[in-house]
């Protein structure tokens, strides 16, 4: 028998009762707001240096000329501070859109709902791949074990989803890096992604389009584990505290 989505009773709520994380029965917007901010700060503090290394690997100057391992922690505090409101805004939007577009958990429209929710929070191809895959992996794991996933299992699903999304969107990330680092007035600096992709393909071939793919996958897989795991765990704790208040 092939896989089928989890029964509605298995993923009818998102707060993590007893450390268990599922889908949604009430928004919990405040918990989502704070948990998203905490998750954003946590992942930036840990993974910012890896992202710097990945960017330098993709630089047309080459890794060493782009700075190598020098100053890979520069800018971490400002990035962490900026990530709190960004991540908080993303998750409150994501959860609200999921709640607003509520469908039965067995519906084949669930991936579409998650894509719409992710695109509302942050309109980038990466999120359109990662979040529907994350939700689908959680639903599959929930069905296989006959109860909703624990928060650590949700984090593992986030790692796999992040790694896959990182791999398939690497060419776009390479193009973005080339555009950002291009000399003013050059054709690449105009911001045309297709032109940047063509230029990389012409000069470096397939390996150029996927430059830095393994560090990117490693960083984002770890980032997915930390980001989504921290989000689920923090949201769980906040909801638990809210329920205990008189």
TrEMBL record:
TM segment ranges: 29-50, 71-94, 209-231
Q: Where are the Solcar repeats?
A: 27-100, 149-237
Which Pfam families does the record associate with it? Mito_carr (PF00153)
What keywords tag this UniProt record? Membrane, Repeat, Transmembrane, Transmembrane helix, Transport
Q: State the annotated membrane topology for this chain.
A: Multi-pass membrane protein
Q: What reaction does this catalyse?
A: S-adenosyl-L-homocysteine(out) + S-adenosyl-L-methionine(in) = S-adenosyl-L-homocysteine(in) + S-adenosyl-L-methionine(out)
Annotated localization? Membrane
Keyword check for Transport, yes or no.
yes
Kindly give the InterPro entries that the UniProt entry links to this protein. Answer: MCP_dom_sf (IPR023395), MCP_transmembrane (IPR018108)
User: Is Membrane included in the keywords of this UniProt record?
Assistant: yes
Q: What is its main location?
A: membrane
Extract one GO cellular component term from the record. membrane
Relate the protein's function as given in its record: Mitochondrial S-adenosyl-L-methionine/S-adenosyl-L-homocysteine antiporter. Mediates the exchange of cytosolic S-adenosyl-L-methionine, the predominant methyl-group donor for macromolecule methylation processes, for mitochondrial S-adenosylhomocysteine(SAH), a by-product of methylation reactions.
The family this protein is said to belong to = Belongs to the mitochondrial carrier (TC 2.A.29) family.
Descriptive protein name: Mitochondrial S-adenosylmethionine carrier protein
Q: What is the source species?
A: Mustela putorius furo (European domestic ferret)
């Amino acid at each position: 028998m092939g896989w089928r989505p989890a029964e509605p009773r298995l993923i009818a709520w998102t707060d993590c009762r007893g450390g268990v994380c599922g889908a949604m029965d009430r928004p919990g917007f405040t918990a989502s707001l704070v948990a998203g901010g905490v998750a954003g700060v946590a992942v930036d503090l840990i993974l910012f240096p890896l992202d710097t290394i990945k960017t330098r690997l993709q630089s047309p100057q080459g890794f060493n000329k782009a700075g190598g391992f020098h100053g890979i922690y520069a800018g971490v505090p400002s990035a962490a501070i900026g990530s709190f409101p960004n991540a908080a805004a993303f998750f409150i939007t994501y959860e609200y859109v999921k709640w607003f577009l509520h469908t039965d958990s067995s519906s084949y429209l669930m991936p579409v709902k998650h894509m719409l929710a992710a695109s509302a929070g942050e309109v980038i191809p990466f999120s359109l791949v990662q979040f529907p895959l994350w939700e689908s992996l959680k639903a599959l794991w929930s069905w296989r074990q006959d109860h909703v996933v624990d928060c650590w299992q949700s984090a593992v699903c986030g790692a796999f989803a992040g790694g896959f999304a990182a791999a398939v969107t690497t060419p776009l990330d390479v193009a973005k890096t080339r555009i950002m680092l291009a000399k003013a007035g050059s054709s690449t600096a105009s911001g045309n992604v297709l032109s940047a992709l063509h230029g990389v393909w012409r000069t470096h071939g397939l390996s150029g389009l996927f430059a830095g793919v393994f560090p990117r996958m490693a960083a984002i897989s770890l980032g997915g584990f930390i980001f989504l795991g921290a989000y689920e765990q923090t949201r769980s704790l906040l909801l638990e505290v809210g329920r205990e208040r008189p």
